[in-house]
Amino acid sequence: MTALCTTLALLAPSPALASAPSTEPPPGSPATPSNSPAEPTVTLITGEKVTATRTADGGLSPEVRDADGRLTGFTSSRDGADTYVYPHGALPYVAAGLLDKQLFNITELLADGYDDAHLDRLPLIVTYTDAAARSRTASTPQGARSVRTLDSIQGAALNVDRSDAFWSSITGGGGDVAARSVGGQLALKGGIAKIWLDGKVEATLADSTAQIGAPEVWKSGNTGQGVDVAVLDTGIDATHPDLAGQVAAAESFVPGETVKDVFGHGTHVASTIAGTGAASDGKERGVAPGVRLHVGKVLGDDNSGQESWIISGMEWAVRDQHAKIVNMSLGADPTDGTDPMSVAVNELSEETGALFVVAAGNLGPAASTIGTPGAADAALTVGAVDGSDTLAFFSSQGPRVGDHALKPDLTAPGVGILAARSQYSTGEGLYRLSDGTSMAAPHVAGAAALLAARHPDFTGKQLKEALVSTAKGTPGLTPYQGGNGRLDIATTTTASVFATTSADFGYPDWPTAPEEPVQREVRYTNLADSAVTLDLAATVDGGPEDLFTLSARQITVPARGATSVTVTTDFDRVPADHPFSGLLTATDAAGTARTRTALAVGREGVRHRLTLQAKDRSGRPTGGELVLLGQDNTVLQQQIDQTGSLDLRLRAGTYAAWLKTDLEGTNGQHSRGLGLLPVPEITLDRDRTVVFDATKARRATVSTPQPSTVDGSRFELFRDFGGNPWVSAWYPEPEYDSVWVLPTSGKVTKGDFSFSTRWRTAQPALTVAAGSRDYDDLRVRRAGTPLPRGKHHLDAVYAGAGGSDAYATLNARGKAVVVRRDDSVPVEQQAAAAATAGARLLLVVNDGIGRLAPWPGSVWVPQDPPPVTVATLTADEGEQLITRIRHDRRVRLDVTSQPETEYVYDLVRDYTGAVAADLTYRVSLRDLARVEMSFRNWHPARALETRASLAPSGSSTGIDFHEVPARGERIDWVTAGAQWTTNVSIPDEQNQQTAPIAYRAGSVQEERWFGPVQRPRLLTNYTVFRGDGDGITAVIPGWGDSGTAHEGNTSGNFAVDNVLRLYQGDKLVGETDRYRTMLSSEPLSRESLRYRLVSENRRDAWAGPYSTTTRTEWGFTSGAVSSGVWNPSLIQLDYAVDTDVDGKAKRAADLTVTALHLPTATEASTIRTVTLDLSYDDGATWHHAKLRRDGDGWRTRIDAPRTARFVTLRATARDNRGNSVDQLITRAFGLR
């Protein structure tokens, strides 16, 4: 994970830490292409929807669509196990520190159940720029609902709709981000200072009161009596014998849940603090059984909660319940202490004098893993040790991310802690063992209560100082690992001398480290009636021995008084780019360490200036969206403004940068081109200037053997220095007429770099020329009855704004009408008026920048076609044509119409290591494969189709869906060698897709879609598996079509049953409801036993006459899995029969059955037997088919009676390992 550094908006590396209702596409659309029907979708704060496909290395490959369902550009990065996806419009706001990065952490959004299938709304926390009252008076932005105010952080919790309404309301909608600024700085509207994900926070899961000295304190009668302690956790089992009568107040901040502790964490924590031990004859007594508990349930029954719930609980605990001590055994992502929860800890501590005791987190042993709210300055942050004071491997460590501040403060027992078990939770007995810093924190909270009872006048700050400075030393641990030491409450309650907890000298930026020595005061307070003389010694871990010097090596602290010592460091002696910590120990005359103060210092090393300049195609300064990566994992996402210049301070090293900017296109000053300007390797060993020079950019284009126009494209830049790969992908919108890319000077020498281009070009629907002038920048929407195929010669006339009044004196019959786009006359009215006037073609001239959409709607939101074919021209081309019509007596247009697309090209070209100077992809048929696409749905319909390959980065190169007739033919030419996946859908009916396939150059492949025989079909056995959890999970798509390797699903919008059942022998061990295709069984016996997986599928008449019901039963043997995942050898049945477009075969047609194992099966097997029975009366009677081996299949010839209309199939197959399949398909295909 990375944390934001606001000075340069640098995303510097730091440790990773800890998002779904519908996986369905927009209404009327097909499902997203996938190898599994269960791919999740997350709607981001910007309104874009991210569909994530799991990659082979465990990462996520994202596909991003805008609110209208169109593919849109993004930048994706990997940080450890986390994948971040940033829509390009969000990058400037992240870079400016206005948006929390976790809003775009797809891995965590999915893991926390924040995807569309689990949450209708996205939970956010907003902080405001004004005073605290602002959060009470601010109007809620459009698209959001206010949940609660959070006064302590001057903010509020919001739930945001899964749309782009909220984003538009806080950014001002479309337009250049430069316009949405205040005083030249990018800003959010509505007084919002920053937006955070209201992220999931989890309890950070360990006993030994004797280890910390509590029994010694009890001997004096001190059990913390009268002290109010709040526990903010998963609730409490107040009926547990150890907690009966201990709870003074309880309240739930989890919507819809009571304070009952179903998870059990809160009860364990509360009893560690205040348990009486009644259930164990006093043996399992908490640290401070005399306290009054105030329980706030801020984590739900699933052990997680939203930050806003927790902040509300914090405010309740100290403001309403007046708790002296607040225990928070919970945490979230590592932060720099400026996040909402940390700010709340600081503000409430200052306001009320309470002490917040917070678990450090369980993200160790890595450094800089202290989670929020433990990152707060005021928090007493607790790590965990075992019974021998060895640091627990899981205990989060410092320094604090971002500013390298000292954390944690101390440690306490957190391994193998025995405490009360909530009787509402799973398990048995009254007690349970747990590990975690969650278990360590309540030891400290209880100890703080004992200390507060001993010193009732102590503030929270004084309690923290006493507990931390008198902790028992833990040799071998630095303060960044274990703070000042391990909690020792027996010593603390009897101590009379306390010291400042820490002296942190900071971590100044280069070159701002002070030239003169820097000093910090450490104060010693003596509560005793006699003076105390102390010897002082400072040590440092891993740095120069004299890094810290003292003004005195011996001090005398007066009775009932205080004195100070000055600690000095010289930054000239501090090694660069490394944080150092140490201890200042005060020892009495007997050689006993009385106090310890943590010391820390560091400084930034030399930085160089990198000046980035941007020029447009004319050499003028321009702005754009910048991404910069460093070999040291530095990441910057920034907006270069229209001055065309940006200065950065960076450490020496190797960097990569690229700029996305709008440029003038190929058709005049009103055209729009997309500029992608990479500089993939920058060696920064001195101050340097790098220019993104679009004057040197080259147009990326494609030349095909047959005439074609671009129907979609995708461009991807991949850069990896070895650890954190980054991908930026762009889908140029149709408004762009060209893409301009900056060639690179040579191949990169460090890491991996690639630039990938993906093209879908298609036979032109319409071409228009006037003499020697071709109008080649058209966008076309065919009419319901388009121009007939072929060439047409049409006179052109000009009709102004194109309203019906324009034709009063204008003869447009049989002609091409040219009009200007006009806000007062929508294109629907212009088309209606032109059609009424008898026009055969309408040409609309844009009055703005770029290419104009010819008709409302999209493939996702279809509209009725226009009454006349509509094409749009850019402003420059269109105005030239209007001028010619006005001045020439007659302008005749040569128009060629193609009512249906007969061929397309799907092309990819990857540039590895560098971007070539020649970016024209000249396609030769010998480099392509021919795919003959046949669409054979049982009725005419509108279908959608797309094809995707894999880029070198591993991401999918899919382009938007395109409309095709559900009955028809098309020739596709595809780049050979690439791994292609094709997806074809009929909205609201079915979705089909292929397995990945690499076509050979010059090969011919037939792909049939929607036709018989449809049945359950898997592309991979990975969707059926058994892991070490002893359950079987199965995902079985029910309706693979006539293709030999197609996986298919119905939309579920109509009557359909998809039921899965799993049997062990005859015992049912797992079952789905009628609409689901994913089954997860109960835990299974570890013995090797026989199982049956049954898939039953039914569709009503809406789905057509074929495959009305199917039943497939797979048999296999399964036992315990020792490690990893086991995939059964499921036998797949494919059928080949020659049917016509209506799904009907000849009565004596050949029928081939192929039985095969998918290549992902764990064990290799060989098919031994295949049988086939045929029925011509829906299964009333059966005819055994004689099969003969034919290649990989078994062939027979049907002999259907003259009266038969359908063929029903019953097939079986067995292999040498006892795996089997039995399949029944009712009305598999028709007869003619």
TrEMBL record:
Chain positions covered by the region annotation Disordered: 16-40
Keywords: Hydrolase, Protease, Serine protease, Signal
GO molecular function: serine-type endopeptidase activity
Signal sequence interval, chain numbering: 1-18
Catalytic-site annotation from UniProt: 233, 265, 438
Source organism, top-level taxon: Bacteria
Hydrolase keyword on record: yes
Gene Ontology biological process terms, A to Z: proteolysis
Peptidase S8/S53 domain: residues covered: 224-478
Family to which the UniProt record says this protein belongs: Belongs to the peptidase S8 family.
Name of the protein this chain belongs to: Serine protease
Phylogenetic lineage: Bacteria, Bacillati, Actinomycetota, Actinomycetes, Micromonosporales
